Amino acid sequence: MRVQRILTKPASSIPADEVDLALIEPLIKKYKGKKGNLIPLLQGVQSIYGYIPRSAFELIAHETGLTLSDMYGVATFYAQFRLSPVGKHIIKVCHGTACHVQGANAISTALKEALKVNDGETTPDKLFTLETVACLGCCSLAPVMMIDEETYGKLTGSSAVKIVKDIKIKETQAKGE
């Protein structure tokens, strides 16, 4: 199963980035002119914003001489890079062989319905992003999902939805305090 990571919306429907580009100036200064700077620059930008905004690509190109095509080529090749904002919590549903055989599709379907998003999308409240991944390396716990750094195994569609709902309740309570 392939995760679509490139937006297919027309550019005019994508809102302009509203990020403080001053935050990446020290990063650019650190790597400007250094050989092999492309991936560290992209990783640094993503660690600051949670994704790589278009305006950051443009600033890096202007300041370092790297081409937009080279940067987008790397950013779209490696699954670690994100080109759009993500939710506070990243839900990764494993679809490796063991998980697939044990019912990963039911988990993904239940989460899509509960969150009202498709694979690779973020909920409107920016709380969750749902992703399909090839393997999480927890085959003995199949089927598995990870939310942030926490692994949940031996899931069903309903147990996965319950976990997500519990997180949402905790988030709501935390905001109310």
Task: Characterise this structure.
This protein starts with 24 loop residues before the first helix and ends with a helix. The longest helix is centred in the C-terminal third of the chain and has 20 residues, at 157-176. A four-stranded mixed sheet has the order 2-1-3-4, covered by helices on one side. The model is unreliable at 10-14 (pLDDT under 50). The chain is globular, with a radius of gyration of 18 Å. The protein has helices at 25-31, 38-49, 54-64, 68-77, 97-101, 104-115, 157-176; strands spanning 89-94, 128-133, 145-147, 150-152. The chain has 177 residues and is α+β, with helices and mostly antiparallel strands. Helix 6 (104-115) runs parallel beside helix 7. A hairpin with a 2-residue loop joins strand 3 (145-147) and strand 4 (150-152).
In short:
With 177 residues, the chain is an alpha+beta fold.
End-to-end C-alpha gap: 41 Å
Main beta sheet: 4 strands, mixed
* Overall morphology: globular
Q: How does the helix and strand content classify structurally?
A: alpha+beta
CA-atom Rg in angstroms? 18 Å
Q: Determine the fraction of residues in helical runs and give it as a percent range.
A: 40-55%
- Note poorly predicted spans: 10-14
Mean pLDDT: 90
Q: Find the count of extended strands (DSSP E, 2+ residues).
A: 4
